[in-house]
Amino acid sequence: MKLIIAGDYQEMSRIAANIIAEEIKKKPDLVLGLATGSTPLGTYRELVRMYKEGKLDFSRVITFNLDEYYGLSPDDPRSYHYYMYRNFFDHVNVRPENIHIPDGTAPDVEEESRRYDEEIKKFGGIDLQLLGIGVNGHIGFNEPGDELLTATHLTDLAPDTLTANARFFGSIDEVPRKAITVGLGTIMQAKKILLLASGPEKAAIMAELLDDDAVSTRVPASFLLLHRDVTVIMDKDAAEIYKNRAKKIDAAIQPASDF
Ligand code: PGA
Fold first, then answer.
1. Fewest 10 Å CB contacts: which of 2, 18, 101, 130?
2. Ligand 1 mean position, distance from CA 213 (Å)
């Protein structure tokens, strides 16, 4: 696991966008796994800027989003479809036919989940997966529990997630209780993973994740410890508790200036 501690959110976003851009330059038909939430917004802004400056071309890039709220239609401003178009797809040249997001309104969720996994497989799996992390350690909407599912599935959102995401819905009662998410298998099979964490509310989970030598279904992100190619980029606030423990602050941390 490579660790980068960025000075602030801006720097975290710039480094993440640079890493994504490098991968697209190496492989123009990159299969890019995308995330939603507050964390990647700055990364999308940077990628849009690079595209507008003529430095990046998405015309052959294939995208797969991690998840979608169950029951929200694509034109619902609170859906992840809407988020992705407003913050990214409307401003770059990803071809509409190359965009994949689970359909939260599919009448047959099991069929939709199977279809989604087949599409990912058809493109040879995810090359680069962008991830945020929940305060409870979830990745995608793979919530802590007794077991984690490998394939795309319908899931109940954890109470912590409902609380954290209430800010996007006005009140907790408005947050959908369920979502379709890719499973841990799809994430772990990605060739390269980029995990972003920003802000003081992520400091505790990042310390737990990085300090621990164990994996547990109680902290879904801990499975990333088993992956060969994970880069974690945190801003100073998200790194605060981990840094203070100073146990493993050493060669594992790459200077942000290298990126
Ligand atoms: P956030 O969400 O970026 O809005 O904090 C992260 C997540 O829940 O994965």
1. 2
2. 24
Domain enclosing residue 94, as ranges: 2-192+203-225
> 23: closest CA among 189, 192, 186?
192
Distance CA 22, CA 172 (A): 39
User: What is the share, in percent, of the chain residues with pLDDT greater than 70?
Assistant: 97
Q: Strand runs (DSSP E) across 96-213, as ranges?
A: 99-100, 128-131, 153-156, 178-181, 192-197
Distance from Cα 40 to the centre of ligand 1, integer Å: 8
Residue 20 lies in a domain: yes
Q: Domain of 131: which CATH number?
A: 3.40.50.1360
> Does any domain span residue 243?
no
Rounded Cα–Cα distance for residues 3 and 172 (Å): 34
Residue 136: active-site member: yes
CA–CA separation, 188 vs 183, rounded Å? 9
Tens digits of residue pLDDT in 6-63: 999 999 999 999 999 999 999 999 999 999 999 999 999 999 999 999 999 999 999 9
**Is 81 tagged catalytic?**
no
Two structure tokens written together for 218: 């109680």
Positive or negative, the CA dihedral 229, 157, 66, 119 is positive
Within-domain flag for 13:
yes
Which of 23, 100, 117, 136 is flagged as catalytic? 136
Active site residue 67: yes
Judge whether 82 and 75 are in contact, CB under 8 Å.
yes
Q: Indicate the number of domains in the chain.
A: 1
